[in-house]
Amino acid sequence: MHAYRTHNxxxxxxxxxxxxxxxxxxxxxxxxxxxxxxxxxxxxxxITQIVADEDSPALEVLDxxxxxxxxxxxxxxxxxxxxxVNPKLETGDIEVFARAITLQSAAxxxxxxxxxxxxxxxxxxxxxxxxDLRRETMHRNIxxxxxxxxxxxxxxxxxxxxxxxxxxxxxxxxEGARDFLxxxxxxxxxxxxxxxxxxxxxxxxxxxxxxxxxxIAPCFRDxxxxxxxxxxxxxxxxxxxFVTQEDVFQxxxxxxxxxxxxxxxxKTVTKSGEFPRIPYAEAIMKFGTDKPDLxxxxxxxxxxxHFEKSGFGLFEKIVGGxxxxxxxxxxxxxxxxxxxxxxxxxxxxxxxxxxLGYVTRKGGEFGGPIAKNHGPERMEELYNELxxxxxxxxxxxAGKEKDAAKLAGAARTQVGEQxxxxxxxxxxxxxxxxxxxxxxxxxxxxxxxxxxxxSMPQGEMEALETMDPLEIKAWQxxxxxxxxxxxxxxxxxxxxxxxxxxxxxxxxDNATVDKEFGGMIEAxxxxxxxxxxxxxxIDRIVMLLAGEEAIREVIAFxxxxxxxxxxxxxxxxxxLAQLRELAxxxxxxxxKPNSQEG
Length: 598
Known about the structure:
By secondary structure, the chain is of the alpha+beta class.
């Protein structure tokens, strides 16, 4: 017999009744029925019920053990009576009568329970992550992550992509987020950087003559953390040669749609080939964001023209100063009290906005200061244009175009959630396309790149030479699911002459481009194919499939919101010997004043 087990804890069934078996696992739960002890024994695979009575030598040992102790049980498989069968367990038809026990490891008092998945403070969950991972939900999430990655990898190879690995120690990137720097012992006073993404390397692979690359790539960015972003993360990084934007879409849609369908657990998924393509300008107009949640049916509208001359002086003044007025409908809110609308206004202020105006309507009667000053006839005209009904309310966001769009987008989400309009049980994908190549930097008072400076401009050199830079679109695209950006991507600018010209419009001379991006430029001068790709985030994909709201729930060993690994104690101070070996000296940061002192 094997030293630890003949079966795992999800393997036994009625077919094994009468057999002598050996199981190993953790003591999950204990139930004492006065001389008869029932123990749920748990391993990676599942749970088996162990029974120990007064005739069992295991009773005394099991009785004194704490939960999460590790034991090996020898025993006989017996059928449960019909009234004690547990259909929730794979082994619910049987139980094992313990005849012998070996204690492998006794657990001390637990800092958090495993069997009962109670809410616990995050710092305790992260400090004792190995315990947290024993919980059913976390264990299932991490297994889901592995299965999703396996599925993605297979779908990519089935499409003719080849998996390559790119360096972890590389050069610092002059753009994007902050780099994590790694001091070099062999080259004192010099530093490597951890890759923010394998962007340069995957493009170099295309220049090297490989056709379809992918990897499950680790990436590192020294930026502030939030629920859907971490200091280190993984992405399905891929690149393709001799492709158009449409080719990239046709390659990625079946991978994502297929993976989501595989793990959707009954939820509907946008079919491959049916992902809507929404121009960036339209997304900002209709949804107030380039990450629209299409489960929300509410659509933002521009009503600026209605307030060019209006009895509502505030809006007229905003419009006269070049601002805009955007509205978000609040359908069927006749039964809502004034408090609902006031609460929305207070919410907007709590989010840092000046406020959120509103109009109420009940049985065709308008209410609120905006309607009173704008007048019922003009309000009727506005409602008719928007196709709103006699019991629909309306929220207003007014100001500079970017500010109004941002408020309207946030309000659209808030109204959709408050009125329970968000469609459940589905994953809705879309592409955001036609991003602007350039934007005007108000602070620097100059034209600069809007997003990725290495995207190919639509119209290529002719567009750069003949069009207003602010009108040029880029072959750049994002893929969005349920309001989460899963990735950005682009058809790359592979021609040095077009790259020099694009940077020239943004105020950079050729010498600067050569200095900052010399490796890429030199490669492109020696024959580069047209190429493009993208990099969907693994953590966000699994988060969505697991139904979680934070990526730390689908990462085995995440950091806290301060970027600290509480379990391993990172980051930590280096020893003096380590610093000397690296030729480094630490600059002590000034102490923050005690908040209790004057």
